[in-house]
Amino acid sequence: MHREVIGIDFGTTNSGVAFIEFDEPTIMENSENERVTPSVVYFKDGNDVVVGSAAKRNIVANPDRTVASIKRYMGTDHQVKIGSESYPPEYVAAHIIKKLVSDAEKRIGTSITDAIITVPAYFMDPQRQAVKDAGEIAGLNVRGILNEPTAAALAFGFQEDEERRILVYDFGGGTFDVSVLTIGGGFFDVDATSGDNHLGGDDIDSRLEEFIVDKIKEKHKIDLGKSKKGNRAVLQSLREEVERVKIELSSKERATLNLPYLSKSGRGTPIAFSYTLTRQEFGELISDFIERTRKPMQQALDDAALHPDEIDDILLVGGTTYIPAVQ
What we know:
This protein is of the alpha+beta class. The chain has helices spanning about 55, 90-110, 125-135, 150-155, 200-220, 230-250, 280-285, 285-290, 295-305; strands at about 5-10, 15-20, 25-30, 35-40, 40-45, 50, 65-70, 80, 85, 115-120, 140-145, 165-170, 175-185, 185-195, 255-265, 270-280, 315.
């Protein structure tokens, strides 16, 4: 069985790896037993670089040395400044890919030399080349760059001979992308693509964070919104709790956010905070974000010269699509 070639989903917020096992695509867990790896890089002092969940925990505590959403800058002249050093996006992205490959090698027990990396269908040649370069810096032979909606269609098993039109609704952590594909006879054609590069699950997290910060201010007169060094640990806990609650509301009607420590009262006792959020309340809170996806969808349909009734299948892709209000 040949498993040396892997597929890499290099995402704005999270990245992942898959390979073929027993003729079926299989998502590989990383060394932290997670199915996805946060696309975050933390440059510690010296040459030590941390990638993934451990790096993500430093976004609040060490923002000047932590890089997130590097995918947005692929194919640009943007330079990432860490201390006195500057790095191109490809170099930062390579660290993420190295982590993915290293963890995958540990899982399958053999070295990995080749990969196919997915990119948004709207990526132009400079962006595609930058992603390919990142893979090569990471030590890979990049066999190909595959459009994300095509990869999604393949993953869902759309390979029939009969021609079908598919709308791929990809609501990820950092961006919203919509594509219209025509498939049939083993061919995949991207007929149109649209989206919003500044709309994703991260925006939903930020909205929920702001909502909770306001509730804390109402109840305890503590303003976490002000940038204070002493608030960093609390803000990191808030960020983690917000993400947990968002995920929990995908399967439950209500979820409780708990912050065991905000500050100390005048008597020196800890001040805690909890808030139970209902699915309906959450849906109302983010309704404008969901509404923003309508225009790109219509644009993609118009560009493909199709009416909604002419779409045979809709594929929901990306973690944000698990939110019931999105569905």
